[in-house]
Amino acid sequence: MQPVIQIKNLQKSYKGGFQALKDINLDIEKGEIFALLGPNGAGKTTLISIVCGIVNATSGSVTADGFDIVRDFRETRSRIGLVPQELTTDAFETVWDTVTFSRGLFGKAPDPAHIEKILKQLSLWEKKDNKIMTLSGGMKRRVLIAKALSHEPSILFLDEPTAGVDVELRKDMWEVVRGLQQSGVTIILTTHYIEEAEMMADRVGVIRKGEIILVEEKNTLMRKLGEKQLTIHLQEKLDAVPDNLKKHGLELSGDGDSLVYAYDTAAGRTGITGLLSDLSEAQIRFSDIETSERSLEDIFVNLVHEEEDDE
Amino acid sequence: MNVRGILAIYKFEMARTGRTLMQSIVSPVLSTCLYFIVFGAAIGSRITEVDGVSYGSFIVPGLIMLSLLTQSVSNASFGIYFPRFSGTIYEILSAPVSYLEIVIGYAGAAATKSVILGTIILATAGFFVDLHIAHPFVMAGFLILTSVTFSLLGFIIGIWADGFEKLQIVPLLVITPLTFLGGTFYSIDMLPSIWQKISLLNPVVYLVSGFRWAFYDKGDVPVVASFIMSMVFLGFCLALIAWIFRTGYRLKD
Predict the structure, then answer these.
(1) pLDDT values of chain A reduced to their tens digit, one per residue, 311 residues
(2) Helix extents (H) in chain A
């Protein structure tokens, strides 16, 4: 099946010579939620801005649903909705007017029923006659989402959609996003909340210094790169890791009452048996053992640091 | 063509006028009334006629042109600058509207406001002086052509400006002086010979003259020259806008 978005050899250099994107190649599959992760200034927003038509690329090509974003801009842009990172809304218009404006701007015939449905979905219906300037930050974020959905896009870009949004509202938005995916909308989101990507995404891409350094199925990624931690709760506190246990790379927790051992689940030998045997030999008694998996956040941080170390 | 997109921008801009009625309509009309009182009644009473037209009537086309130029420029420049300033321009740039459609929406709304304003000022002038329009269609043509051209200029300024100060510089330091020196309150025939020649370098002379010809069948320069000059200026603005959109200047760079 043809990818819904195909990015080939995309480059973006700014006037001062800064290269924001370096030879980006990326395919987004129809109907998936793709999370693009990367530290600040990695090029996430530039990449999204080029696909949406806000920034000109220096070279390379992008297609959406098989249409070129420059040559066939009407076809591509009418399929794409964008929720920008910044809370860039009008101030003096009402919620209803600004969402209706967006639908018209994208060339769609007026459809009050559709606007009503979106506003109700996003809990904005009660605020429809309010001026945007009177809304809270979270509500403004919802207005931006409503504007992006007003023309019924089949591809939705969410650039840090839950930045500055409280936990409850964030969960509401996740539900909306899931609902959109179920209705067939392809979603590309950038986020600083790795938890968000972990919960929502089907695939994850990591961008750093304008380069895509990894694209992987989220579950495969977590399985491949996933380390587990074994935490051994001690009956008696230790001042330091005993000499005969140092070879295991153990870490003593802050107050000395537990030892932490990291191991690779993908490796043939985890080293747990040897560790337990050495613990017994050192006559270290423990009250409990627990294991925990690395989160996507740990994986992300490691990936970015590994790349930095390689340079 | 995305007609709905153009209409959305146009209606949005016209709604802004509705919200700022005092600033958009009432203020320029009041200023024009003051000009009539000061120049038409107080000073004009000491000047009998210019080219066979009473001084009060003589200044009407110039006064309309003065408001038309300044309001077209400031409306259109603010219209496009504010979305750039607030960041809402992202929506325009990511929508399936062509550059031409964006310009039609913004400059069209600014020009409409100017035409409405010009008509209101014309009606207001009727309370102060006797008005006679020799060529009403030519007058309407010049009114629309000038509004459109200077709205395009305003659009360019709105793209170029990177602060509110720059937004004001051109209307205050270029348009207003050129209009005052462009025969708004006098015929350039009244100037010494050397200043008459220098005045011909001022494009506003041609606009005011053409507009005045439409009223009184008399102008400082031939009406054809006024028309050609207007079209040249229109062509210049269109070419500059085409370049802005082709390069993404201040919008997509």
Answers:
(1) 788 999 999 999 988 888 889 999 999 999 999 999 888 888 888 999 999 988 889 999 999 999 999 999 999 999 999 999 888 888 888 999 999 999 999 999 999 999 999 998 888 899 989 999 898 888 888 899 999 999 999 999 998 887 777 777 778 788 888 888 998 999 999 877 777 777 888 998 988 888 888 888 887 777 666 667 888 888 888 888 888 888 888 888 868 888 888 877 666 677 888 888 888 888 888 888 888 776 666 667 766 666 555 55
(2) 44-52, 73-79, 95-105, 112-121, 137-149, 167-182, 194-200, 218-225, 272-281, 296-310
Contact residues on chain A for B90, CB-CB shorter than 8 A:
49, 52, 54, 82, 84, 88
Instruction: Say whether A78 and B96 touch across the interface (CB within 8 A).
Output: yes
CB A47 within 8 A of CB A123: no
Sign of dihedral through CA atoms B99, B105, B108, B110?
negative
DSSP-assigned states of every residue in B100-153: HHHHHHHHHHHHHHHHHHHHHHHHHHHHHS----S-HHHHHHHHHHHHHHHHHH
A248 with A190, same domain: the answer is no
A301 found inside a domain: no
**Do A176 and A268 lie in a common domain?**
no
A263 and A183 share one domain: no
Same domain, A269 and A214: no
Other C-beta atoms within 10 Å of B189: how many? 10
Q: Are residues A266 and A208 in the same domain?
A: no
Instruction: Say yes or no: A183 and A281 in one domain.
Output: no
**Measured between alpha carbons, how far is residue B13 from residues B8, B106, B107 in Å?**
9, 7, 10
Q: How many domains, in total, are found in chain A?
A: 2
Answer yes or no: is A285 within a domain: yes
Q: Most distant CA pair in chain A: distance in Å?
A: 78
Which residue range forms the structural domain that includes residue A262?
Answer: 227-293
- Determine which helix (DSSP H) or strand (DSSP E) holds A232, and give its type and residue range: strand A227-234
Q: Is the CB of residue B253 less than 8 Å away from at least one CB of chain A? A: yes
Please determine, for the modelled complex, whether the ipTM score is greater than 0.85.
Answer: no
Count A/B contacts: CB-CB distance under 8 Å: 76
- Mark whether A196 and A240 lie in a shared domain: no
